[in-house]
Amino acid sequence: MAAKKGKKAPGDKAKGGGAGRAPGLGRVNGHYQENGMETLFEVVKMGKSATQSVVDDWIEAYKHDRDHALLDLINFFIQCSGCKGAVSGEMFRHMQNSEIIRKMTEEFDEDGGDYPFTMAGPQWKKFRINFCDFIAVLVRQCQYSIIYDEYMMDTVISLLTGLSDSQVRAFRHTSTLAAMKLMTALVNVALNLSINMDNTQRQYEAERNKVLAKRANDRLENLLQKRKELQENQDEIENMMNAIFKGVFVHRYRDAIAEIRAICIEEIGMWMKLYSDAFLNDSYLKYVGWTMHDKQGEVRLKCLGALQGLFHSRELGARLELFTSRFKDRIVSMTLDKEYDVAVQAIKLLTLVLQSSDEILTAEDCESVYHLVYSAHRPIAVSAGEFLFKKLFSHRGPEEEGLPRRGRQSLNGSLIKTTVFFYLESELHEHGAYLVDSLWDCGSELLKDWESMISLLLDEPVSGEEALTDRQETALVEIMLCAIRQACECHPPVGRGTGKRVLSAKEKKTQLDDRTRITEMFAVALPLLLAKYCVDIDKVTNLLQIPKYFDLDIYTTGRLEKHLDALLRQIWEVQDKHTDTEVLEASSTTYHSLCNEEFTIFNRVDIARSQLLDELVDKFNTLLEDFLQEVGASGCFFDAHDLSKWDLFTSNYKLLNTGLQNGDMPEQIVIHAMQCTHYIILWHLAKVSDGSSLKGDMVTLRKQMRAFCLMCQRYLNSINNAVKEQAFTILCDLLLIFSHQMMSSGREQLEPLVYTPDSSLQAELLNFILDQVFIDQDEDNNSTGQSLSPLCQTTYYNDYGDIIKETLSKTRQIDKVQCAKTLVLSLQMLFNDMLSELGFNVDRSTSAFCGIKELSRRFSLTFGLDQMKTREAIAMLHKDGIEFAFKEPSPQGQGSPPLNLAFLDILSEFSSKLIHQDKRTVHKYLERFMTVQMALQRDDCWLPLISYRNSLQVGGDDDTMSVISGISSRGSTRSKKSKSATASKRKLPEAEENSCSSSDAVWMNREQNMQTPVMMHSPHLTSTVLRDPKKMRQEDSFMLNTEHCTHSTQVTWMLTQRQQVEARQQQERVSMHYAKMRNHIRRGSGLMEDDEEPIVEDVMMSSEDRLEDINEDMNFETMDIDLPASKNRRERSELKPDYFDPSSIMDDSVRIINFLQCCFTYLLLFLCNRSM
Hints:
It contains 47 helices and two strands. The chain is mostly helical. Residues 249-334 form the SCD domain. It holds the Pfam family STAG.
């Protein structure tokens, strides 16, 4: 075939219009003008004229001027691609197809991306249909003459082949669709030619076989000539088809665009179906087989559709054996395709394959489809159900023809057995409703044969027949119930439908008829079935659900009251024999369905129900009284006797779990069960501790203890206060018993039993304390004190007396630093509350601020007299307080004091507890946060900073130093005592003083040149409880290294150090003497000391004044900070320089400390609010 279009004679220049054009149509530079005139593209797009008439008009124009008509057809394809350009007559006459396509590509506007075949809307959808019809009708109308002129078809095929190879998607898509539809039309022409050739050949054979006298030679010659012409036309059509197939299809069936690939596969399926003699062979089938592996579901779907069209015909299906054997595995795997539509079509294709031949699919292939009847996607399940029905139920042998329609011996009876066998073999016994729904569309007649189902359950098998087993009968009852539900509800089971659909009138009538049949049959059969299977839980549970689908009017209209009485008697017997929850709930549901006041049977059912409930209530009251007595007795014996060998933990745990699930168990039962379970665990622990238990007892005890703790934690949310208090008390006892202390005294083997509460349990206990204890109440506090006592036992003022007192004592014994951090955290929380109430401008004369400051003064008294024992805690307290004060910048901008600066006034109450060396260190730490401008400020808003700095001056004696003068409020009395003391002081040599002063000067210059941050991070107030020591921020070292002194200065420093130790010993002797003089006053060493009671305030104040007088003899300014060995309970050899780093003070009890810190903080805030 010529790849180049034919040329027109030079003198043939008709200016007439093309097909479908009005008389005034003209072109300017090859573009159409739309002054009331329509192009071929517009005519097809609008669809106002019939396609047949449009084609006829074009053919007439082609006969008149074939170049202009063909030019209209070419521009039609160009415009269908969305190109705004057009091919002019000059271009058509002098340019090759490749040049025309290149020119159109240059004029194509690809910015929008949309073209007619990708645009949405009904208009463009109709346009696609009209486009395909136009090509089909055009070829059909030209099949007798024009397509054989070697001009039109050559030109069109050449153009479409070139456009299909374009880089422009719109050209490629449009031309491929046009070429494939053109190919399909040519296939129809070739098929007609083949039929005509066969008819001509038969006519020729018939005429030639006539006797010589009757033979018409002219007719033979005409037939031969006709057959020759048909053969030539057939060859011409085959050449055209080969050109399209090789020039377009072979390249486009693997195009990058899925829609183009889908067009190719869809059309080749049509070719094989229409002209199977030419196309139904391996040369063409291979393209469909290969494309079944396409990545796009749209293309795979077209492949399956093409094959379904072939397998619908048994004759064509028989010719696909080789293809099926080659690609069968791929088709079977496509039943699990991720695209649901593809999977559905794959199952339908296998059903057609099954119809064509039973031997193609193996048992494994069928089983891969069988299980899809349980799919949640209903179309897949229905398709799989149809496949299953065709495979198992559609084949009838000759011996089955004479069987009855209904009953045990009927054909349906055999098929129902087959259904039961399949259901059991699938091992999905909880999905009977899914199986019934899958088979409903194709096998509803079988599933509605309830008469045969009842016969299989009640009738005895005949001789030679194998009876159903118990398992098979259970499956049959479930399938029967599911079929009844499907017939009465008319909607798929849960998970397969989006909602109830509206039933048609025919479906509603069918539903009513089915419900009537169900009631008439099962009103008689159900009492018999319940009597036969009364003791079987599964069968009875399903059978008792049938009455809710009854039409209860039929009991009266059908005179079936005696069967109703029989049903009520059987329900009575069922509930009397069973204790299973499912059976009892099913019985209750049946009574609810039957007790409907709208029906006349209500009185009869209501009497039976009342009699049943009276009997149940009497039994309940009797059993409850006996049970309470037995539980109380067992609890008393558990307290003093080991009853663990009876393994009562499981029973008690089950009882507690039932109480949680139902929520209505009496509190006496729950409390007694908790106590018994608690004693069981304690007796078990005693055995394990003594070593008399077996090897696995420790593992069992660990599991039981943790399970019981979780159960008690769940009971903390109970609505009953007595139950909550009991659960709280037991939890606290268990946490105390199974803490790390249980490994002491050589019992390291008990380490697996150690139980550390997680964050959720800590939060639950804390919430209980906050809700039940720390509340304002006028009644007696004994109950709240009893609730608080267990918590204090597990962890470690006035309203709860000794409990809180002991808690604070245990707290500081565990960790003084954490206790100090808790105190300052409480003050910070109160300070934040005050800011939220009073605003940012803090008035230090308000009662709220004065109350917080008074509280801080009282907190400072709890640190006792021995400053060395509390040195680390006090330093940490000041560090946290300084960071908090500078944490938030001023909301008023730069130049204003930080938001929390007034907190330094509160913090100054603790300055007196710092030893002189640490005051300088704290002062230097304070200067880290200060800027030069802050140090020069003297406004009233900066008084807290000035006051706090003065309280840290090494020369100052306490925190009561005057803000203005810097002189202590007690300076007048102290100055008298200091005169004589000063004279006896020993001073360092001048060299050392000069060295130290120069060192301080260097440090000050360095600090002034350093860019000091305005604020430092401090821990969030709400994160103290759950803070992980491994994740805590590594703070910069609080202690500052001083400059090195010369060798001579170090010698002098050693002498001074010895003098200081002697002075300290003198101080201790004076303190002891002073304590003996005040022995008539009962006091302790303070809460921050180890084992003594809190000191009395007046004693603290007087003793403090006394110690200040003693300390006058000590010179603490003769050296840089030297930290002696700490004498606290940790027995540290020295105070670490990073003791302001939180990670350095965490020990193994950090979780308990964190939990205590939160409890203690809430306690302090609560007591402070009560006192304020």
